[in-house]
Fold this sequence. Notes:
With 1447 residues, the chain is mostly beta strands. Helix content is 13%, strand content 36%. Strand 2 and strand 3 (69-76) form a beta hairpin. Helix 14 (909-926) packs across helix 15 (928-948).
Amino acid sequence: MSEWQRIFVQNLAIPPHCQRRRHPPRKSTAFQCALKYVEGNLIKQRVLEGLSEVEYQLRLSLFDITYRHFFGRTWKSTPRPLKVVPGQLPKVVFNETLYFHTSLNHPSIVAVVEVVVAAKKREGTLQDLSIGFGILPLFNSKSEPSDVATKDRGLKLYHGTPRALLHPLLQDPIEQNKYMTMVENIHLQYTLRLHPPLETMSHLFPENMLVSGLQKIPGLLLTHGETNDFLRKPHLMKSVTWYLDKLSINLYPSLEKFEEELLDLLNSDRLLKDSSAVNVSEVIIQERRLHIGVHNGLRFVQTPQVAVVVPETEVARGRSASFHRKQGPSAKPSMVGQALVLRSRIHLTEMVRHPAFAIIFQLEYVFCASSGADRKALSISSLIKAAYMHSIRWAVWNPLLDSSSMDVTVPLQGGAQHNPSHVLVYKMPPASMSSEEVKQVQSGTVQFHFSTDAEEHLGTFTDSLRNIREEPVHSAKPSTLSLSAPSSPQLLASTQDYPQGPGLSMSQLSASPRSPPVSPSTKPPMQRQAGFPVPRSPGRGQHGCAVRALIQELPDGGGGITHLEVDLGHSSLALDSSASDQLQELPFAPVHAPIVAMGTQSGSSSSVLTRASLSRLHAAGFPEILDCNKEPAEVVDPTDPVNVNPQREEADFLQSNEIILQFLAFSRISQNGLGTTWPKTMYFTFQFYRFPPVTTPRLQLVKVDQSGTASSAASSYILVQINKDGTLKSGSPGFQLKYMVDPAFLKPGEQRWFIRYIADHNLQIDIWDGDSLLLIGSAAVKLKHLLRQSRTAVQVLHELEVMTTEYEQDTTVMSGDILRHGTVKPIGVYTVVRGRLHLNLANVGHLCEQRLKKSNSLPPSRSRVISSHDGTSSFHGGSLLSLNSPGAKNVCQAQKLADLDSELAAMLSSRLQEVSTAFQHTSREASAVRRRKIERMMMVRQLEAKEAGVNGRRASLMGRREERIQHSRDLQIIDAYRERIKDESISSMLSQAITTNYTLYAMLGTAEFFEFALKNPYNIQHTVTIESDHPELSVIVDSREWRHFKELTQTITTPVEEDMFHLQGNLMPQVYLRPKETIHIPFKYQTFSVEHAVMMQQGPAELGFNKGTEAASPWKSSAMLTKRIKVSFKANGDKPIAILSVNVEPQPHVVDQTFRFYHPELTFLKKSIRLPPWHTLPGAPAGMPGGEPEMYVRCSDPNVICETKNMGPGEPQDVFLKVAGGPSPQIKRFFVAIYTDSWLAAPIQIWQFYLHSLHRVDVSCITGQLSRLSLVLRGTQTIRKVRAYTSHMQELKVDPEGVFILPPNGVQDLHIGVRPQKAGSRFIYLNLVDVEYHQLVSSWLVCVSCRQPVISKAFEIALPAGGGKGSNKRITYTNPYPSRRMYFLHTNRADLLQFKEDSFEIGGGETYTIGLRFAPSQNTGEEEILIYINDHEDKNEETFCVKVAYQ
Length: 1447
């Protein structure tokens, strides 16, 4: 046995699990593990009775926890005795160091250490006893090497042997498993660290091989002084370059006979596998390849070179064909040469003069065979053939260390024995001859000339593979393999231990000789590497393992190969950029203050009206709400708690719910110091459940309190509907809306959703000024009191606060400034209560109406698993009129072709006559006068026909002849038309036969999950490509996401497969199907898009859906069109085997909260919205472990940037928005969905956003001083009567103030004057409204930046609080100018201070006494009142500050 063979046999190892080898190769990590000693009471003495020569040994193996797979080779230490020192624990000292390197950097890759007792029995036999084992982790959860350190560590041991890790009950994490019991008082002392010097020699021994520091590695130089550890500082032996020329291979008895027998065996094996197939083609030889590499007994030192060998006579004839083409079904292989020769010279630069270094030859054949279906096909797909690669022979040559040049003959080997490539090899011929020399010749030989001289030239074999590989590549487009028909994954699971595999891929083997060489840095797409194995074929033959790939056959039959080797070493891979070159992102900190997403104050609060006012309000005659028995509905107190019982609601006999909203009245609340001008009309906008959004008509505010008492802080106004002429409607006041929520209108199971919506959600209502179209404020009401809880009807009267949110740019927040419900107010945002809305809500129960048409209701709930055999196919086959057959659903009646095709109808003369006659008939019916005229004309023609006699009959015969000619011509046209559309019609009918229909009902942001049962109808395997014509319907390729949706939908009848799909570069998933196999393809439909048509604010509009008693279905909207998505499942050759037609019915979604932002036009709005605590959101799961979950957001508008940042545990989360505004007065609407699961299955909340784009006007001014400017008004196409309205009447004045005419297409100035009441930055809204049609013509956002004037004098005064008559005071002012001046007086608190005279005139240097009257205040405290003294141009001259203390 040679040195190479001895080392090779002794170091055979088990490869890693096949699933690990499928991952791309990574950089290998080198480790050094020092095993020091084992300490403790190792074993009881009674166990050792009868045993002698007791010694202890460590055994270490690599283990994959995920796949329960031991791999590599178990390393065993030198047996050591037990040392016992009095006063100390027993100890076994090993002090052995071992090394290994691995690229499997996964947390489940561990090292298992076992402590074993080795002893002899009395009869002399050996016995091994396991004391325990320990688990040594190599990588952490981030796939990085474990926390290695230089200090020693102790490893705890577990009872049993490492074989226990193979038990299925030991799930990961193993250390926490209840079946793992720890051995007490025993530990192993060890050190584990990285060892980078080992990487320099990693090419000399394979991955996952555990070697001791004393083990001699071939190719490693044994340095002096390193007697205990050769691998601590390894040194490599010097390599030399060897050359191989004149290489030829001889097979027994001849090349022709050998290959003929080989093909016969393969064809017979193929017939046995595909016995049921028709027209099974024969296998032919396409290529002969020779792998040549240097092996040191442990592994290939470098990736073996690949070359093509051809028959000798083909080289002599000058032909370059490297495979044989059959000329007919009976043709034999064209074998004319008796040897296979190599046309190139081989350079082996990695050779080392060591007895264990050997040259390995491996002969491999590439076979191909096209299927019977491909023979009949007329498309280009018939040229694509499946390739099979078989290893035929291999040989090993150990050169003499002192040789320099010689001719060598080496016998070939084969059959079932270990070889360096670890592949199955073709069998050897029967050993029937006794002579050893004959046996060697019988298996074949490889002959070559070996030399170490680079200058030696041998004929035409001077071109080497290495030289061609090192040539620069100038072509940017290498020849590649067509991937139109993917190969089946029936590949060889190669266990070869060299890292990069063969140098040539199948795509390069199919390249034309005229093609430019492939770039060395190009990685072939179908490279057969050790790192990319695929599961073994279940139907593998006994003579080899088939490798399937795709070979594109050249049209001219010249399937040559470019003789090159692609460098696939680690040096050719793209290196990752250094982490130091990357900029590190700082923690997210918004530069603007976040808005708290808290919604509007919901629910009722204490009434601000007096009892007398409430009595007059309810005596106004509002409509009474009656139940189904005509009895008044039960009144519920809005402050009472509600116990939600869904089971009680679902068991209610009255399943139909009539939801009634009554808008009764509005109470104004006086604003301190603002002097607000109140609206005269108002309207409301809101959206209930999933019904369409509502905009109510304008309602007039009619005062209730006729007495006008001043004691009340609020005054109430009844809401009355307005006629089109502007008069008030007679009848009951208020405005009433009804929603009929009937189970027949809802989706199956949606009744529970509706109950949950009523119990958890609030209804947000926006209140608008009906004249100025400005937002007054918003109110929110809790709907939970509408739950009837088995009552016939309930009603609840709410008094809701109408609040508006105002935003300021520069504001500081005091620590005590909080909102009513306890949330700290965000910076720059404050709320103002504008009034109270009196709203009556009711829920009246009714019996479920069964008179609804079935077409309006949804189909029954079906399984989420769709099959093509569940009756959903588009065409069921058979006769179209087979009405009596069971399950027949398609009935087609014959129709004229002219009625189906307008183009054909225009060409038929008979059709034109029919159309003309029909038109005349219609015209006669349309006009009575014309009909009488035509009747008279017909009578005249009848008389003329009688007089004509024979002439009339002759004309009739001629007319009939022309009619027959026209009909004959029409029949020819129809026949040509049928021939033209025949192919299309047949193709359409065949597509319908494999089409399955499925309907799903989708809402915004909610993922709809289903599975499609795909069956391979053929007797051969196929790789199916799944193509969808819409991006919103996608295949779930992640098994974790698939498992998540199956758990959510309780779809537990079908399995989940790992790594089921293969993704191509164009991201179309592919799946492999065995013959007649059925698998389930998971799909997910999810849309985030809605109609984002830019809206214009048109003001109030008349309602259309509530005029009758029948309400539209809440899930059916005429604006939402049905979407049809086609999914094609295409096999090899782009042929569909199944079609899935998905009909998507969009459903309205629930809006949980609405935000409105007013922003300058054509600018970006940037806002941060702070999410409330997640457990307060309706729909959030209760009791979720792990604290607050991470929030995810998605926006319905792709042009809106929306993201969320998690600031860490316990920190609030913000939603960041960046929206581009449009021109004024456009309104952009979009939605944001909020999720708590990473797969975005269903949103817990949906927010609606409105962005009002306004003209921006910047004003910089001083408080109390009037700043004037002009705005340009541009007229529309028609004349309009318009008026300007402002949100702050006391601070902004307009001129003209009333209604004026805006001429069409004209330009006019609108003068405004701004007098702010306080310093800071704020927004004032200005609307130009058409007073006739209540439409918004234009809108401005006045951005006021105001500073405080210089205060020249300050005063203090004390006044009583709590009523009284007020107080009169006086202050003096002296005119500083020598001339006479006119002055005007203003104040920032007109509610607390009034002037005796608003203006005065004074001479130069004179003094004037200003009379002041301070109004009483209801509250105690201090107020600072400013007095502005302005000149005749309203410019500020002086400012006095009066500090009033109310006591």
